[in-house]
Design a protein that fits this description.
alpha/beta; TIM Barrel; eight-stranded parallel β-sheet; globular; binds zinc ion
C-alpha cells in the first residue's frame, strides 16, 4: 500500500501504548501513514510527546492542555508550554477548548474558558494553528472564537461532533473539521452524518484519536493510525464519492494546514 495519509490527531504518548508503542509507530509508514500529530492531554503529556517527536521523524505534536485537565494549569506550567512552542516539531497549539460533557461546576467551566482564551492568544502570537477539543459546548466555543482576529487557516476542530449549522459557522471562521471513526458507528440520518455529507471536502482533515474511537468493523481494544484507511473508505461511502477523490482532497487540506509536514 502506498497511499499517503496523515493522522492529524493521535495520543501515542498515552500509557495505553506503553506496550507495543515502538512497533506500532515503526509500522505506520508501511500503512501509508507518513505523519502523525500528537495532541496534548494533561500538562505532563507535553514532555512525553516531545520525547516521541525527538525519537521519530514522522511524529509531530500540538502543545497545550486539554480542557478536562486545566485545573492543574498555572503560570509556571504555561511558561513551559510557551517555551516548548519554539521546538520545530510543535506544529500547533492544543488540545484546547471547552468540554461540558461531564458534570462541570461553574468554577471548572470558568477555568476552561480562561485557558481556552490564553491558548487562542498563544496560537495567534506564535502564528500556529489551533487544535480544538469541543464537547457539548459548540455555540459557546464559536462565540469565543469569533471575538478574535484569527489567521485565514486558524486550525482544526478535532473530532467534530456538532451539527451542520455549527459546522458552517466554524468553517466561516476558517476552521477545518477533524473526522475520525465516530461517524462509522452512527445511523446515516444522525446529525453528524448529515453534516459530514454536505461539508465541502476542502474543509475536512482525517484523524483517528488513537487509542480512542475505534471505527466500526476494526478489531482490537485500542485504535491506531492504521484505521485511517477504514475511515477514508467509510467516509467515501457516506458521501457517495470515490476514496481516491477523498484522499486527494483531504491531503490538499492537510498540506494547507500543516505545510511543514511536506516541506522535506
Ligand atoms: Zn484527542
Amino acid at each position: 500500500m502506498s497511499e499517503v495519509l496523515v493522522d492529524t490527531h493521535t495520543h501515542y504518548a498515552h500509557r495505553r501504548f506503553d506496550s507495543g508503542r515502538d512497533e506500532i509507530l515503526h509500522g505506520l509508514v508501511d500503512n501509508g501513514v507518513i505523519a502523525v500529530i500528537e495532541g496534548a492531554i494533561d500538562f505532563a503529556s507535553n514532555q512525553k510527546m516531545k520525547l516521541l517527536c525527538d525519537k521519530y521523524a514522522h511524529v509531530f505534536m500540538a502543545a497545550g492542555c486539554h480542557p478536562n485537565c486545566v485545573e492543574e494549569m498555572d503560570d509556571e506550567k504555561y511558561q513551559v508550554i510557551v517555551e516548548l512552542t519554539n521546538y520545530d516539531k510543535v506544529l500547533a497549539i492544543g488540545e484546547t477548548g471547552l468540554d461540558y460533557a461531564r458534570d462541570k461546576s461553574g468554577e471548572q467551566i470558568c477555568k476552561q474558558k480562561v485557558w481556552f482564551r490564553k491558548f487562542i492568544e498563544l496560537a495567534v502570537e506564535k502564528k500556529k494553528p489551533l487544535v480544538i477539543h469541543c464537547r457539548k459546548a459548540y455555540d459557546e466555543a464559536i462565540n469565543i472564537l469569533q471575538e478574535y482576529k484569527l489567521a485565514e487557516c486558524p486550525g482544526v476542530i478535532h473530532c467534530f461532533s456538532g451539527n451542520l449549522e455549527q459546522a458552517r459557522k466554524l468553517m466561516d471562521i476558517g476552521f477545518c473539521l477533524g473526522v475520525n471513526g465516530m461517524f462509522t458507528k452512527m445511523d446515516e440520518d444522525a446529525e453528524l452524518c448529515v453534516a459530514l455529507k454536505s461539508i465541502p471536502l476542502e474543509k475536512i482533515v482525517f484523524e483517528t484519536d488513537s487509542p480512542y474511537l475505534i471505527p466500526d468493523g476494526v478489531a482490537g481494544k485500542r485504535n491506531t493510525s492504521k484505521s485511517l484507511n477504514v475511515i477514508v473508505e467509510k467516509f467515501a461511502e457516506l458521501r457517495g464519492e470515490s476514496p481516491e477523490h477523498i484522499r486527494e482532497g483531504v491531503l490538499k487540506n492537510t498540506k494547507r494546514l500543516y505545510p511543514e509536514l511536506f516541506a522535506g
